[in-house]
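Minutes, project check-in
Item: structure for the 379-residue chain
Input as provided by the requester:
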Amino acid sequence: MTLSVTGALAGVRVIDLSRVLGGPYCGQVLGDHGADVLKVEPPKGDETRFWGPPFQDGVAAYYLGLNRNKRGTTLDLSTPAGVEALYELLADADVLIENFKTGTLEKWGLGFDLLSQRFPRLIHCRISGFGADGPLGGRVGYDAAIQALCGIMSVNGEAQGEPLRVGIPLVDQCTGMNAVSGILLALYERTQSGLGQFVECSLFDTGISLLHPYSSNWFASRQPPQRTGNAHVSLYPYDVFPTATVPVFIGVGNNRQFALLCDCLDAPALRDDPRFAEPALRSINRIPLRQLLVELLADRQGAAVADRLLQSGVPAAPQLDVPAALNHPHTAHRQMLVTIGDGYRGVASPIKLSRTPASYRLAPPVAALERKKKESHHG
């Protein structure tokens, strides 16, 4: 079988005006899968160029992780010359990605109403904090603020501790994924209608959508969800347990897995205990069950017991830090690390396509600002 090297989105042209995380992440996903993405930065650059340390050749690692497979340039869209230059770029573009504050593009004559008249096939994707209208419409949104507002922090943390932000920028990244989905849906629909459309993805909407199962539990019971630490709100054991070495996560979703867990731990009395006979009973009786499991695991080697459980069919894993996860043999086997040239190393696309796989062609456009400065100086 001959594999295509062009990607599933080869021939799709994307103008990426976005900054920070959600929009650039969306553009990078499209670029990984073959789209021709041009990142257009303001004269001072995407602010994440300066979000460090660490820095590499003067550019923040934060920026480098979100902007590969893009060409780069700068435009001052607050000037007529910048607007005209963008019009030229949009003439043969399929997709526009932006995350300007509501009203900014409209003020410059670049709102969707006007652009759709001039470029009827253009798919205009806007990522915003809260959308354009409503009680919070037009307000600025950052990931952690959305986690606080949407209830995500309220269910994250130890049961007796304070609410905590999820350590990764979960809302921003998921909003970028939603934007990718919306763009692909619009591209498919355009094959039928011949017309582009406005794709809107807000951090707030994404934050609310991520509340499962707490949202569905609240609809059913009207009981406010509580923090449970690493434990699952509905299943047990589904938690992190200490061992003689590294802590391990163990997740049991059914009776068969619970029986396998007991066999691996040489604990037939635990398997036959009527308090733990069914999933609901194990969840209700989670305190004594946890105590028994902690005792059974106290003298065991964490990585070894996790491996034995996983091989037997019980979801389990040692608790690793980020370097250990990135250096795990399965990370390499799944080709989840990528290098471009001598200076770029990053995490690969998790989307695996058999005929049109992702490819990694361009390092982030770190030199776009310097090149523009030189052109302006010579001019």
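Outcome recorded: Residues 326 and 332 are 8 Å apart (CA to CA).
No further action items on this chain.
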